[in-house]
Amino acid sequence: MDMAMAARLGPLGLPHAALLGSSAAASTRALPLAPSRAPRLPYPLPHFPTCRRPSSSSSAAAYAARPRPRRGSPRLLAVRAMASGNPYAAELAAAKKAVTLAARLCQAVQQDIVHSGIQSKADKSPVTVADYGSQILVSLVLKMEVSSGPFSLVAEEDSEELRKDGAEEILEEITDLVNETISDSGSYNISFMKEGILSAIDDGKSKGGPTGRHWVLDPIDGTKGFVRGDQYAIALALLDEGKVVLGVLACPNLPLSSISNPNGSSSGGQVGALFSATIGCGAEVESLDGSPPQKVIDLLI
Fold first, then answer.
1. Is 4 domain-assigned?
2. What share of the chain has pLDDT > 90, as a percent?
3. pTM for the complete prediction?
């Protein structure tokens, strides 16, 4: 094969010429030479920057300093939630389970308060028992249900008072009440000793912060209403990178009939509402007895 043939074959090279055979090689001589440059397009091609990391130190510094969306941006969190369904589905289920158990404990204590005629939140009172018990149940359930990563709970109570001499009786009462609530729910086949109860209380001593995930709890929001046998709530929220992404509110004494029902169905005189909302997914309400949730609002939080 002469040099002219090799030039016409271009990158195919000599081995391909041998495979083509003499007749193919002869016909190849009639092929025109490849153009030296591509034809000019009537429109400019779009520019796509490469994704390779720069090699030099100066360009590497510029690459590291490039602008990028903030991880905790509410808009970014909302977009991710809408794109993937609910990225906080496991956390939402755990939060609803936790505050539901806490509400059951508070309901039992409130009945005792109403019958005994207690009028204030004094030390070692049933109100204090409910505060501790609510926080303990939320802490225990969240740790058992959402175990990935470090656990951080910002709450009200610590175990200092319960570790003092003379607090054995109230600690035993709290321990029995927590174990009884867990047993009656049928959710867990487990019983906690006093030290485990104290440890669960101290799990709520986190200071939170602008990074990471932090649960924030008010074990009884509305102490005066609780003492009167009136309205109160167990309020729980989840912060992710400093932004509220999830909230659950249990209202044990709130009649469902007081909430507008978009489906027009009757609440049947049920008392006890559980509100929940996740960023990008709207808000829902359901009864504390576990009825199917109903959409409250379609606005993003």
1. no
2. 51
3. 0.69
